[in-house]
Amino acid sequence: MGTRVREKWERVAEWGGRLRHPESGARRSLLLILKSALAATVSWFISYELIDATSPAFAPFSAVLMVQVTVYQSVIQSLRYVGAVAAGVAVQAVLGLSAGPDLISFALVALAALVISRWRVLGHQGPQVATAAFFAFATYTSATSNSDQVRELGQIVLLVLIGSAVGVAVNVLIAPPLRYRSAEYGIRALAQEIHDLLDAMTPELGEGAPDADTTKGWRDRASRTGSLITQSREGLRTARESLRLNPRPWARRRRRHLTFQAYEQTMEALVRMISQVAAITRTLDQRHREDEDPDSDTDTSEDTEDSDGSDGSDGSDGSDGSDGSGAPRESGGSGDFGDPEASRGPVAEDPRDPEYAPFLRGYSTFLSSVADFTEVLATLDEDHLREQADRLGEAAGHLEECRREVARTTDDHGLSLTDPTEPYGVLVVEATRLSEECRYTAEVLSHSADEPAAEGR
């Protein structure tokens, strides 16, 4: 009993600790609840105590709906909501007053309201047209005279206007939401996902050729990133939107360096890197599939779920004897495929291709350097951008050296980059693309660190 009580208090203390963090989800949720409750209370007081409305609940209901995650959404959704309710009430007023409160009239009201609800201008508030029309019809049937009917219908629109106005006012005047860090969190999440996957792959590749279950696990994991990509892009959209119509005088000044353009460029580079890592896992796994079915063709055309289809290629495929950057590969180099620890011990060889396992051993060194790059990016913080940009630049330089070593030693050992039944061509090309994306990302962030963010970008 004492242990359970202690665990409960520990959870309460942990939740309280999250509340102290200004950007925590717990703090934002609590603030949203308190603001919604305040908006509902004020709306009820106005509609019930001051106006003495017949159906005062319309006001607090509308107020809660209008306390949105951004000020911009509060304003836009309130306009759409009021328009939808007014349209629904208008449908009932025209058809109900002319045809009477019978079943045929209700069917006509429902039909007209549902047609209007499809209007794109109303967006997500479209269904409120039918909802308002049905409530208006119920109110209309309970009225005893035509004047009462008109007054009740007008009162519905008035209460919705009051609730919407109160909801927007509370959201604007009391801690207006600011989500500019959401873009940063999205970049961190994508970088951490790449890092974790590569961190799991490099030890296995360093041991030699991984088994079929291992490569299939990597491939499956790389293909399940679609929802994370969607969430990250949504976070960027919310961050950009949270500055629109935001009355906080310091809202725009909080972004010292990074513009939303820089956030977007960095995020899309990470999306392309996820696609490239997925291509690497498919190639590694495809080798086992070919062992099971020798007549199958190598398939590396799949894209990561919800990816934008960009592969980050600049047209160089590495199959012309170059290192992917347009310059001929350097000759010479050691035969350990870029592994600085040549004394690591015997490597498990593929009996079909004794060069495959040593190649993977060197390739793991390159992927480890990519993991180091994404580890820095997974802690992106605008307040320390200059320092992190320098570290990313150094990591990108080291990463390119590792890639060149892979390309050079591959050439020295005469491994085919054009044979579609061999994995080397795809792996070398994807290494080139990963290196290019890392260098590009480092340059974007370095440029942002050197120039202050322009207001509104």
TrEMBL record:
- According to its record, what are the GO cellular component terms? plasma membrane
- Record-annotated membrane-spanning stretches: 103-122, 129-147, 153-174
Q: Where is this region: Disordered?
A: 205-240, 283-356
Stretches assigned to coiled coil? none
Which domain of life does this protein belong to?
Answer: Bacteria
Residue ranges, compositional bias (Basic and acidic residues) = 213-223
Respond yes or no to whether keyword Transmembrane is given for this record: yes
Q: Where is the sequence biased in composition, kind Acidic residues?
A: 292-311
- Compositionally biased, Polar residues: which spans? 224-233
Q: Which InterPro entries match?
A: ArAE_1
- What name is this protein filed under? FUSC family protein
